[in-house]
Amino acid sequence: MSQVFACEFPDHLWFDVERDVWIECLPSGTLRIGMTDPAQTRAGKILHVRGRPGKAVKAGKNVATIESAKWVGPFPAPVDGTVVRVNEIVLRDPNMINRDPYGEGWVAELQPGGEWLSPHLIKGADVAAIYREKLQEEGITCMRCAPIEETMSDSDDAL
């Protein structure tokens, strides 16, 4: 896994750097997508996620709507496809995106509308240099939002 300014970039994922979206191709051919570590940091604590399966989308168009303490905005599709599933976990607990953006915090799954690999998508192992420049320009260092009970140690409980 590559890391830049405390932001993680798993080697096995593909990244749409412009849209700050990652892609994982599942064995079924479905694409799982989510917010990158820098995107969730920029957004702050995620409060609501809305999306609906069955929606056909073009690359760059809205797959879901994300609301955080800082903004409300579209979560863009990195490729053309049809939304086949929205992550029930993030619908119930949107902050999972902040805590685990590349694991339980994925946003949606798409059935691609054809060949999905394109030159604008960069493999995780190769994306660090590009993000280093982008994050440096933006002055971003990643952090994860965790509930207070997860950040307290046993010694804190005794206080």
Task: Explain what this protein looks like in three dimensions.
- It is a single chain.
- 22% of the residues lie in helices and 33% in strands.
- It is α+β, with helices and mostly antiparallel strands and 159 residues long.
- It has a single domain, classed as Beta Barrel (OB fold (Dihydrolipoamide Acetyltransferase, E2P)), CATH 2.40.50.
The CATH architecture designation is Beta Barrel
Indicate the structural class. Answer: alpha+beta
Helix content: 10-25%
Strand content: 25-35%
In round numbers, the mean pLDDT is 90
The biggest sheet amounts to: 7 strands, antiparallel
CATH fold field value: OB fold (Dihydrolipoamide Acetyltransferase, E2P)
The helix/strand series, from N terminus to C terminus, equals EEEEEHEEEEEHHEEHHH
Shape, principal axes of CA atoms: globular
Count of discrete structural domains: 1
**Alpha plus pi helix count:** 6
Structure summarized in a few sentences:
The chain has 159 residues and is of the alpha+beta class.
Structural key phrases:
seven-stranded antiparallel sheet; single chain; OB fold (Dihydrolipoamide Acetyltransferase, E2P); alpha+beta; three-stranded antiparallel sheet; 159 residues; globular; disordered C terminus; 6 helices; 22% helix
